[in-house]
Amino acid sequence: MSKSILLQTALALPNPDIEALIQGRMIAAMPRMFLNPGRTFALYPANLSVDLLSGDRHYRSHFLPIAKNALAQLNSETVLITAWARCELCQMLNDPESLEALSQLTVWTTEALQQTVLEKPYLFLAYLRVYLLPQPFEIPVQSSGNFVSLSKSLNVTDSTPVLSESMFAKRRQKLEKLELPEHPELEELQSALVHLSTTNPKAKQLDEEIKIFLGWSENLPTTKPDPDLDWIKTIAQIGNSSDGNGFEKLVRQSFIKLGFANSNNKPEASLDPESTGGAGGLDFYCETPYQVVGECKATKSETVADGTPAQLIKLGHKHLQEQYNCCIKIIMAAGQLNRHANKTAIGNHMNVIRPETLQRLVELKAKQPGSIDLLQLKPCLEQQPFGQEADAKVNRYIDGVREKLKVRSHLIKIVKNRLEITGVENAGVEALHGAYYANPNPPQPLNLQAMHEILIELASPLTGFLGRIKGDDWRRDRFYFLRDLRLDD
Using one digit for the tens of pLDDT, what is the confidence trace for 18-61? Predict the structure, then answer.
């Protein structure tokens, strides 16, 4: 439950330092006085003495462009406060070895830290848990002492932390032990992406994913919905209309979206949405990853006669000849097949699939790109039942995929919650298995080894939902949270 906190003062820090705290790059600040643990305050971006001009000495090279931009944004008349913080710990440091390690865990150069110690007996290092304000708060510029008074009190909550409790605890432990960062090269790459990410969506997504991997952020990359959803959402509507040509184009687009392809340029056996087969051609034909041939029948209300499956048999043999017998056969039809048509479809191993089912399948592919495995779909289309009952088996395949996604999403939440509740950095398979069954209604039964296999999948570099610390054997593997898997209802 969120706590309500009243803020009356703000800690003055250099604006680049506040930017680094808000971005999750570091959890430390160098106040000019000792801070009592538990003290809360807003973060006041000040133009404090930062030597950026004489050899760019204060901030590390990869952070320097961000620091300069942060200083350039300061206004001479007003200050915009966007975050507040709670001091969790305050230390005094002065030995050279500590300062060198501290530099690697923050945005400050070793030289800048050494200079601070030369001017004072030691430096104060405050560990700050930072929270974002729901709305920026603007106040007039004030002379920057250690603290400045706010023009009016701020009533805030701790509902929007930059880092979760478990992630902050992990970062705090590394800082207390002065453990060197594991991936300094990725920190430099992320900084190089900052300016590019403002104009390039792919660079922005990579930037967000690197920050999640480094533990600077826990938010999923803010990607726009697949633009193809605009036409995907019309499949059922067009299929249940009299627009046969429009439906054929949508079906071809759908198969391409699912990952099917056809190098055949002949319009009578094609998959090109802009070159439909016409009166004498097949409505759609796929070559890879396996052969699929089909007929489309858009209808408002009328039943589908025996001529539709008969047309597929005739044109399939005509244009594909002996290849036709190797193809999976599909009729895309909104209307009910009459008794004769359904009998012909069943006898010739034709799957009759409704536009609504096709739309469901392609929507799932658009929203969860890696979810549809065409080689796993193939047996579903090759096996009984055929005819109109085939629509139910395709829907069962879609439901099965969605259930697998739910299990994986649930497991990721279990890892995340386990670490937050216990405060540990990672969790073993047996502990996670126990947490899985602590819920009275888990998505599906999983034994220990089956759960481990899914955890390995989620910890793959290609998925990146979890991290994995490999043990001596699979039972000793440990996992930690990286990012959520969000599902649409």
Answer: 999 998 889 999 998 899 999 999 999 987 655 544 446 888 88
Q: Which two tokens stand for residue 308?
A: 């539709």
Q: Are residues 8 and 59 in the same domain?
A: yes
Q: What backbone phi and psi angles, to 5 degrees, belong to 174?
A: -65, -40
Backbone angles phi, psi at 352, to 5 degrees: -100, 115
The three-class DSSP label of residue 161 is: strand
Of 159, 157, 162, 134, nearest to 218 by C-alpha is 162
Indicate the residue type of 223: T
Neighbours of 479 (CB within 10 A): 27
- Please return the burial class of 93, using the count of CB atoms within 10 Å of its CB with bins 0-12, 13-18 and 19+: middle
Task: Lowest mean pLDDT of 91-95, 108-112, 144-148, 193-197, name the range.
Answer: 193-197
Strands 466-469 vs 478-481: parallel, antiparallel or unpaired: antiparallel
- CATH, residue 441: 1.10.10
Q: For the sheet containing 328-333, what is the strand order?
A: 284-286, 292-297, 328-333, 350-353
What angle, rounded to 10 degrees, do the helices at 374-382 and 390-422 form? 140
- Strand 78-93 vs strand 123-140: parallel, antiparallel, or unpaired? antiparallel
Residues 263 and 352 in one domain: yes
pLDDT at 194 over 70: no
CB 49 within 8 A of CB 112: no
For residues 284 and 334, state if they share a domain: yes
Please give the residue range of the domain that contains residue 366: 229-388
pLDDT score at 375: 94
User: d(Cα 144, Cα 45) in Å, to the nearest integer?
Assistant: 9
| Interacting residues of 200 by C-beta distance below 8 A, sequence separation 6+ | none
Long-range contacts of 334-337 (CB under 8 A, 24+ apart): 334/236, 334/239, 334/240, 334/297, 334/298, 334/299, 335/297, 335/299, 335/301, 335/302, 335/303, 335/304, 336/303, 336/304, 336/388, 337/303, 337/304, 337/308, 337/309, 337/387, 337/388
Q: How many CA atoms lie within 13 A of 108 on its CB side?
A: 26
Instruction: Read off the pLDDT band of 190 (50, 70, 90).
Output: low
- Chain Cα centroid distance, residue 19: 23
Report for 212-226, 399-413, 416-430, 449-463: range of highest mean pLDDT = 399-413
Same domain, 424 and 365: no
User: pLDDT digit string (tens) for 415-433?
Assistant: 988 888 887 778 899 999 9
- Residues 35, 164, single domain; the answer is yes
Query: Distance between CA atoms of 252 and 284, rounded to whole angstroms?
Result: 6
Identify which of 345, 470, 423 has the alpha carbon closest to the alpha carbon of residue 171: 423
The torsion angle over the Cα atoms of residues 16, 19, 24 and 28, rounded to 10 degrees, is 50
Residue 106 included in any domain: yes
